[in-house]
Amino acid sequence: MGFTTLVVIAIFMVLGNWASQASSRTLHDEVTVKNMHEQWAQKYGRTYADDAEKEKRFKIFRDNADFVEKFNNKGNRTYKLGIDNVFADLTSQEFLTYYTGFRPTHFPKSSAGTKSFRYANLTNVSDTVDWREQGAVNEIKNQRECGCCWAFSVVAAIEGITKIKTGKLVSLSEQQLVDCDKKNEGCNGGMMDTAFEYIKENGGISSEEDYPYQGRDGDCDSQKAREKTATISGYEDVTQNNEEDLRKAVNQQPVSVGIAVGDEFQFYESGVFTGGCGERMNHAVTLIGYGYSDEDGMKYWLVRNSWGTSWGESGYMKLQREAGQPEGLCGIASAASYPII
Ligand SMILES: *[C@@H]1O[C@H](CO)[C@@H](O)[C@H](O)[C@H]1NC(C)=O
Ligand SMILES: *[C@@H]1O[C@H](CO)[C@@H](O)[C@H](O)[C@H]1NC(C)=O
Ligand SMILES: CC(=O)N[C@H]1CO[C@H](CO)[C@@H](O)[C@@H]1O
């Protein structure tokens, strides 16, 4: 092989390498993504300590933008992802660490709840329910960087049944659960059933106004914890891995559920979510209804989340119902419970 041939081959290799790099980066050129990142940071009030941090966050943002665009370009999906939410500069690992916090295997299984399922024989179950329409659901809240989804899940369920039984919509205190429920671990995670038990034993729960949310662990303010804006007499578990029984329960009141959250959740924007789920149960939300999508009749659960309104459909998600597995999509029917008054 002559020298010229080698040079030509080398040039082609360089060009080829450049072309393949360019094609893997054609989704967004650097300048466009830099601008997107700047605008995003402005919109969500994100500031960075120094240039190194900014550069690191920019790279994560760019990877996330690519992930979202590749997903949406595949088309043929019943749901869309979007970069326009508060999680856009977080890695998947950071996102899961800060914003979830259901730890069903970390704590001993509680036995104190009433184990009967009072809605077992319900026959007149409507086809669709949306408890927002009955005024039984508060504005979306935001757990921020504190793994106390379990507290938000429980509070929304109690707010719901309180409105249904008393006619009054109150906003209740997640912070009280974070600070005072010693069987759970505040921002480090917890379980819904244990929190229902704490509220029962405490004789009630204080209001959001009296004991406001801080987004971090704190000492229990026993003065504030004595205010009782709502009370429960206990809780019950929905038959495990039975979406029909889950539907009966949600037909009657908002229900606390655990789910297995994975990568795609971070950027869920709209439509009926059909998975990417996580490998294990790690998050808690509240089911506030169920229905069928207008476009294709697909069955879904209406999920109220605690990640603010920039995520999902103004803070809510439609998650596919009766997708085929007994435990439900992302395990939605595997750890469901509701408070009783
Ligand atoms: C449901 O019906 C069965 C059969 O009549 C009865 O044994 C059971 O106690 C009922 N369950 C509830 C929760 O009412
Ligand atoms: C069933 O539900 C509908 C609508 O809520 C109500 O109008 C009807 O009376 C109910 N029927 C029975 C048998 O409970
Ligand atoms: C979710 C969805 O729309 N899936 C469709 C993808 O495309 C195939 C082939 O056209 C359809 O059979 C699926 O229903």
Automatic annotation (TrEMBL):
Spans traversing the lipid bilayer: none
Coiled-coil parts of chain: none
GO molecular function: cysteine-type peptidase activity
Positions of the Peptidase C1A papain C-terminal domain: 125-340
Residue ranges constituting the Cathepsin propeptide inhibitor domain according to the UniProt record: 37-95
InterPro entries given in the database record: Papain-like_cys_pep_sf, Pept_asp_AS, Pept_cys_AS, Pept_his_AS, Peptidase_C1A, Peptidase_C1A_C, Peptidase_C1A_papain-like, Prot_inhib_I29
Glycoprotein as UniProt keyword: yes
CDD domains: Peptidase_C1A
GO BP, one annotated term: proteolysis
UniProt entry keywords in alphabetical sequence: Disulfide bond, Glycoprotein, Hydrolase, Protease, Signal, Thiol protease
Signal peptide: 1-24
Top-level taxon of the source organism: Eukaryota
Membership in a protein family: Belongs to the peptidase C1 family.
UniProt name for this protein: Ervatamin-B-like
Organism: Ziziphus jujuba (Chinese jujube)
